[in-house]
C-alpha cells in the first residue's frame, strides 16, 4: 500500500498532518510526505507547539509541495499561511502574547539549532523507556510495545502498535476507563485520558512529555493506586 501512488490513481491530493514531524526516537525514521510532491500534490500541516515543545502556542502553517504545478493548472490557489486558533479568553492577551509569538516565529524556525531537537528527542526517549518499564509493575495496564515517536502512549489501530489496555478483571469497583481516570485523578492527582473520549473504550492515553524524575513519581502513584484497588485473591 503506497499512499502517494494510490492518491495519484484516484486523482486526489494528500493532506499530511505533520505537527509531530521529526519527534521520532526509535528505529523508524520520519519521512515528510512533501518529498512525494512530484508524484501527487501534498498539503502539509505544521505546528510550533509540538516539535518546539511550547504547548499553548496556537500557531501553525500550511505548506504545499507541488513542483509540477498540478494545483495551479487546476486553478487551485494555495499559499504559505499562519493560522491562529485561539479560545475566547486568549483574545484578552492578544496584544501582549499573540503578536509577540507571531513575530518570534521567523527567528524560531530559522535559528533553532539541531542540538535543541536532539535534546528533546533524548528526553522523550528516556521518558518512553521509563513509561514502559514502570507500567510492567502495574498489572491492570498493558503496554506491549514501547513508543518510538510523539509524546503519547495509546492504541493506534493494530496489535503491533503502542497501546495501553485496561484490564478491569484485576480491579475492584472500577468498570470503565472513565471511572479509572476519575478515581486516579481524585486520589493521586494523576491525569490520564480515558479512551472512550476518542471512541476507544477500555483504553488509556498517557503522555510521557514529562520531566523524567516527575514522571517516575507519577507512575509510582499509579502503581499505588492499582494495589489499593486490586481485587483480593
From TrEMBL:
Residue ranges constituting the Aminotransferase class I/classII large domain according to the UniProt record: 6-212
Molecular-function GO terms, alphabetical: L-tyrosine-2-oxoglutarate transaminase activity; pyridoxal phosphate binding
GO biological process terms held by the UniProt record: L-tyrosine catabolic process
Protein name: Aminotransferase class I/classII large domain-containing protein
SUPFAM superfamilies, A to Z: PLP-dependent transferases (SSF53383)
InterPro entries per record: Aminotransferase_I/II_large, PyrdxlP-dep_Trfase, PyrdxlP-dep_Trfase_major, PyrdxlP-dep_Trfase_small
Amino acid at each position: 500500500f503506497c499512499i502517494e501512488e494510490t492518491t495519484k490513481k484516484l486523482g486526489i491530493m494528500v493532506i499530511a498532518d505533520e505537527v509531530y514531524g521529526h519527534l521520532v526516537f526509535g528505529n523508524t525514521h520520519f519521512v515528510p510526505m512533501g518529498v512525494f510532491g512530484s508524484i501527487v500534490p501534498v498539503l502539509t500541516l505544521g505546528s510550533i507547539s509540538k516539535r518546539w515543545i511550547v504547548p499553548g502556542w496556537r500557531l501553525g502553517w500550511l505548506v504545499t509541495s507541488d513542483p509540477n504545478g498540478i494545483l495551479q493548472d487546476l486553478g487551485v490557489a494555495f499559499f504559505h499561511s499562519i493560522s491562529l486558533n485561539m479560545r475566547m479568553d486568549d483574545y484578552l492577551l492578544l496584544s501582549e502574547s499573540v503578536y509577540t509569538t507571531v513575530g518570534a516565529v521567523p527567528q524560531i524556525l530559522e535559528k533553532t539549532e539541531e542540538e535543541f531537537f536532539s535534546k528533546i528527542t533524548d528526553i522523550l526517549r528516556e521518558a518512553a523507556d521509563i513509561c514502559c518499564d514502570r507500567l510492567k509493575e502495574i498489572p491492570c495496564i498493558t503496554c506491549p510495545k514501547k513508543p518510538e515517536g510523539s509524546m503519547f502512549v495509546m492504541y493506534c489501530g493494530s496489535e503491533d502498535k503502542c497501546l495501553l489496555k485496561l484490564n478491569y478483571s484485576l480491579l475492584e469497583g472500577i468498570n470503565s476507563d472513565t471511572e479509572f481516570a476519575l478515581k486516579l485523578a481524585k486520589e493521586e492527582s494523576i491525569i490520564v485520558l480515558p479512551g472512550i473520549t476518542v471512541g476507544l473504550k477500555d483504553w488509556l492515553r498517557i503522555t510521557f512529555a514529562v520531566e523524567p524524575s516527575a514522571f517516575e513519581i507519577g507512575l509510582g502513584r499509579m502503581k499505588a493506586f492499582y494495589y489499593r484497588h486490586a481485587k483480593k485473591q
